[in-house]
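Would you mind giving me a polypeptide sequence along with per-residue structure tokens?
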Amino acid sequence: MKYEDVRRYAELMKEFGLTALEVSDEGSSLRLEIGQKAVSAPAAAEPQADAAVQDSGVKAAPETDSISIKSPMVGVFYRAPAENAAPYVKVGDTVKKGTVIGLIEAMKLMNEIVSDSEGVVESILAENGQTVDYGFELIRLKKI
């Protein structure tokens, strides 16, 4: 199964309001499940946010001088490169463009998530090992 297929299935889950989907195709199988923590805020609460999402997964929050780093894919978010390693970033750290802020495991591949903006880590919204959906806010930066 290709990354594009997984993304398409995730979009179908959103479109039809599904919380789980299991697909088998040509000897491979995939199960997608939206956990309680991966549920995004209702669309009515943030009407301008969806339009502001960029391909990089970074957008400016409309109400403050904060920058949200959002998940570019469905997968499991990890704050550190290994179980006993220090996290990539902590609250209060200064982040520059290109700084790795975490990993997302999707289809047994580790994908580095990098910041597309500069700022100070204001809050980390995704927990280590949490399943995240496309567009889920991972980290919020304060502009510098």
Q: What stands out?
A: Residues 3-16 form the longest helix (14 residues). The longest strand covers residues 100-106.
